[in-house]
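Researcher: I'd like a structural prediction for the single chain below. Treat it as a standalone chain; there are no partners to consider.
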Amino acid sequence: MLLNLRNAVLDLGGPTLLDNIDFQLDKDQRTALLGRNGCGKSTLLKVLAGQLALDSGVVKIDQGITLGFLGQAVPDNVPKTVYELIALSFGEAGRLLVQSHNAADDDHEHHAAISEVDTWTVAARVDKVISQFQLEPEMEFATLSGGRQRRALLASVIATEPDILLLDEPTNHLDLESVLWLENYLVTRKGALLFVSHDREFISRLANGIAELDRGRMYQYDVSYKNYLALREKRDEDEQRNNALFDKKLAQEERWIRQGVQARRTRNEGRVRALKALRVDRGARRDKQASATLKLDAGEKSGKLVAEIENISFGYDERFIVRNFSTSIVRGDKIGLIGPNGMGKTTLLRLLLGDLTPNSGRVKLGTKVEIAYLDQQRGEIDEDKSLIDNVSLGREFIEVNGQSQHIIGYLQQFLFNPQQARTRAGLLSGGERARLLLARLFSQPANVLVLDEPTNDLDIETLELLEELLLQYQGTLFLVSHDRAILNNVVTSSLVLEGDGRVGEYVGGYDDWLRLSDARNSALQRSAPGARQQPKKSPTQNNNKKSGKKPGQKKGLPVPASITKKAKLSYKDQRELDALPELIASLEAEQSALYVALSTPDLHASEPDKARDSQRQLKDIESKLNKVYARWEELEALQ
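Model: Treating it as a single chain, here is the predicted structure.
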């Protein structure tokens, strides 16, 4: 094993975080460290990275093993530029490289120094990592956005290729594209990995082992995330059953001792001692923390039409964020917004909701629309006010779901005890701040919810509860998130910012978008004239290939293949191949129409026969599409 933790104890005040735990990490093991917010996951990573000492216990790392650590917070004294940050992770060689990089071309002394220690390999590695992470080397770190800072810090940790990587919430502030790149990199990377994450898809795809911290104890499983969930459920059931038996036994003995004289006789002293031991055990037991009990008030119904968007365009200078986009949003729609950081998701949201006037086009909001926002900046919290004042503005009672509720009781549903409810909001952790914002948001009746990265800092249990709540929500939802699981499970349609002002509209969540766009892109890629005759692509051409587009070509339906016949393709086969794009387009149009029909909130209740017929039609069309794609592949292979 590369890393071994034995009999670790750590108490920072409050409940013991590490209570005599053991843990080990082996070569090529990718372990997800899970647990509720505040259970000690980040603390454990700091212990393993040598940044925090144990009260007792031993951390052993094999001789010669290197370790890289990425914490949640930005470290102090970060080098000025991105290049310096990454280069200096290589120690002395990196320091000389930075001096040479910053020196003038005619500064022969510095260039001679770098040659003497042979740091050109380091220079090549730095350049490669900067390119992989799509970073600007001369950008000042302090001027970067949160997402770009996270990428730069990740690059600096990964650059030296350590044997063990310790990553604390590595996907925080990253867009989906960056998360996918990181996921693929870590899956193929050689070496051990221990990471903390609340991104369930990231965990599922990456982890081949799970370590769970629960009330100071460590539970380690060499299984996938899916199998771990089943094992944890069984463990929780066993614990509940054993606790119930214990409590029943204790209650019986307490009743017996209260009977008086009989219990104090000499022959019963052993039973009295056993009762005292039971009391000690019960006092030492740490019961499972309660779950948040979230409820959402959809308020008065909005009109059937929430917003009508007609041919809107918006941009700054010559850059279009949205160009000639039209759509209709109806009550009950749950819309996910997908796109890289900086592409304009928040701007698009503001346009759709009438908060921002388009350069051209028209946005018409429906009647009785009441909007509640949760932004990713978490800026709505007043740090100097108590939790009570932040949620109820000092009122003792608030109205939630049409019922009056005491503010203390309401906050307890979000896991804030009465003492916490009266403390300053500035003292809250990231996860607690997220729960406070949800408490504030859900206290407001709203028939349109706008959630911008709501999953940041939430533990998995609270995240799953939020997901269930959004599924039951009867109003209209706009959701911006890099969490693929919540996009797949909650949204009924997706708006995807595709660049150059194009906004693609897709039925379903993240995986549905990938499936539909990949199918179309594959068709475009295969049918592009001369696609096989181009051995080498420029960077721009490569990017176009990845997105399934030729330069200047808009994303859309497949285009006809070249009419130039190959020796192995008959005239009949060529005609069939030429006709396939139109057939695919027709089937996909039918498929999209059925998805839209089936996503109507009350269809299944009001017209169950129609819903069943639509589902059968959808299944038939999907079967036909699979056959058409297979035939396309077959004919293409003959060319």
